[in-house]
């Protein structure tokens, strides 16, 4: 992670590796302590969408959770509202990562 420009992970990794209970706090700690070069980290949340945390723009030292961190959340696509059924989600995460 120390050489990564950005990080994409599942929903359990950030909390597991950092010991933080909250996903956004865990993503900030992951960026601050484990991926010092990365500008952002995104965690896929399965049927709940995704959440991303973007590092503060300046080089100033910022405590985890301090001002300057940007948190972005996006719900999963509401396919059920289109009248279509979900048949198979195999590869959905790969397609999402490819789109990033």
Overview of this protein structure:
26% of the residues lie in helices and 19% in strands. With 100 residues, it is α+β, with helices and mostly antiparallel strands. Strand 2 (40-44) and strand 3 form a beta hairpin. It starts with 5 loop residues before the first strand and ends with a helix.
Could you write a compact summary of the structure shown?
With 100 residues, the chain is α+β, with helices and mostly antiparallel strands. It contains 3 helices and 4 strands, in the order E-H-H-E-E-E-H. The two termini are 18 Å apart.
Number of E-state strands: 4
Q: What fraction, in percent, of the residue positions are helical? A: 25-40%
Q: What is the 3D form?
A: elongated
Strand order of the largest sheet: 1-2-3-4
Calculate Rg over CA atoms: 15 Å
Topology order in helix (H) and strand (E) letters: EHHEEEH
Low-confidence stretches: 60-65
Tally of individual helices:
3
Largest pleated sheet? 4 strands, mixed
The overall pLDDT average reads 84
Indicate the proportion of strand residues: 15-25%
Structural class: alpha+beta
Cα-to-Cα separation, first versus last residue = 18 Å
Which SSEs are present, and which pair or pack?
Elements: E1 6-9, H1 13-18, H2 23-34, E2 40-44, E3 50-54, E4 70-74, H3 92-99
Parallel strand pairs: 1-2
Antiparallel strand pairs: 2-3, 3-4
């Amino acid at each position: 992670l120390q050489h990564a420009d950005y990080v994409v992970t599942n929903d359990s990794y950030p909390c597991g590796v950092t010991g933080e209970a909250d996903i956004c706090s865990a993503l900030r700690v992951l960026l601050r302590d484990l991926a010092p070069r990365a500008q952002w980290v995104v965690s896929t949340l399965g049927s709940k969408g995704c959440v991303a945390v973007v590092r503060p723009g300046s080089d100033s030292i910022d405590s985890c959770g301090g001002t300057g961190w940007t948190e972005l959340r996006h719900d999963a696509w509401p396919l059920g509202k289109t009248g279509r059924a979900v048949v198979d989600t195999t590869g959905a995460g790969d397609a999402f990562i490819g789109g990033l």
